[in-house]
Amino acid sequence: MRSVAFNNTLRGLSRAGSRFQPTTLPRIAAARAYSTPAESQYEFIQVSEPRPGVGQVTLNRPKALNALSTPLITELNAALLSFQQSPTIRAIVLTGSERAFAAGADIKEMAPLTFSKAFLDSFIESWSNLTFTVKKPIIGAVSGHALGGGCELALMTDIIYCTKTANFGQPEIKLGTIPGAGGSQRLTRAVGKSKAMELILTGKSFSGEEAERWGVAARAFDSYEELMEGALKTAETIAGYSKVAVQAAKEVVNKSQEVGLRDGVEYERRMFHALFGSQDQKIGMKAFAEKGKAKWVDE
Ligand code: CAA
């Protein structure tokens, strides 16, 4: 059952949606930094559209270093769903503050939980909505602490950008528990078993510089300002391509994380074949041949 807050948010989103005109990116004149009606209902996040075609969610619970409480995750899911449904948003940036992307799941919320409550309520399961419902690319822009669930949330995004001094880690072992939002699986895929084992068993942090070197992050920047500019620029670049091709590209890369090589290559080839049925493939290749600029129709 959806919470009242979630339903209110969705009502706000459908009002916001009526302002969106189905259009392709080249026709968007300028970036809008506006407050959607839904945003005013958010307590723990901020939502904006800082560049054409780019939606940004900023975690905003500064006093708790963006600790990921259930109400925060509910808002995050609602905002991401609205970006997914928006015809104008084509890429998403998920970020926190300069001091903290997120310092983990909310320890104060978790402390009194019992096994049966966590089990029966499927505690933390809704965090994965991000990975299942959002088909548009998400760039995680990480500055400061990305610990425990914060590290796991970053690992759920499609591309991680960070500052060199960002502080990643899975410190759950120090709390007498283990990662619970995919850290043992995604971090292991990113850095290999031995390094993941060391990080998870010791709870030691690793820097943004190391994250880039190990392939956890695509890029590490010298400053917070450069990080945000880099993330928005990449999101804007992605937003300039065909929605159909972008969604297909995200899907085939993600498939590589779940299936063996042979099945993955087969899946990619089928998707590649399918794109010959899209108008944007014809538009893109014709524009190349005619030395023109493709005007995507997202079909
Ligand atoms: N949950 C709840 N509150 C948190 C929090 C968290 N994960 N992390 C920080 N806070 C709160 C602190 O309690 C403090 O609140 P008060 O001012 O009310 O005391 C406030 O944020 C500021 O934190 P600090 O004073 O500790 O700030 P600092 O700069 O000295 O230290 C820190 C920063 C190293 C990140 C430290 O806050 C810390 O170690 N936080 C916990 C990190 C952690 O263990 N995360 C994993 C959580 S478990 C998990 O995420 C499970 C999972 O896999 C899903």
UniProtKB/TrEMBL annotation:
InterPro entries reported for this sequence = ClpP/crotonase-like_dom_sf, Enoyl-CoA_hyd/isom_CS, Enoyl-CoA_hydra/iso, Enoyl-CoA_hydra_C
EC number(s) given by UniProt: 4.2.1.17
Tell me what organism the protein belongs to.
Neurospora crassa (strain ATCC 24698 / 74-OR23-1A / CBS 708.71 / DSM 1257 / FGSC 987)
Q: Which GO BP annotation is one of this protein's?
A: fatty acid beta-oxidation
- State the UniProt keywords alphabetically: Fatty acid metabolism, Lipid metabolism, Lyase
Q: Which GO terms describe its molecular function?
A: enoyl-CoA hydratase activity
Q: Name one GO cellular component term.
A: mitochondrion
Superkingdom of this protein's organism: Eukaryota
What is the name of the protein in this document? Probable enoyl-CoA hydratase, mitochondrial
PANTHER family reported for this sequence: ENOYL-COA HYDRATASE, MITOCHONDRIAL, ENOYL-COA HYDRATASE-RELATED
Record keyword Lyase present: yes
Kindly give the Gene3D superfamilies that the UniProt entry links to this protein. 2-enoyl-CoA Hydratase, Chain A, domain 1 (3.90.226.10), Lyase 2-enoyl-coa Hydratase, Chain A, domain 2 (1.10.12.10)
Family affiliation: Belongs to the enoyl-CoA hydratase/isomerase family.
- Catalytic EC class: lyase
Enumerate the transmembrane spans: none
The UniProt record lists the keyword Lipid metabolism:
yes
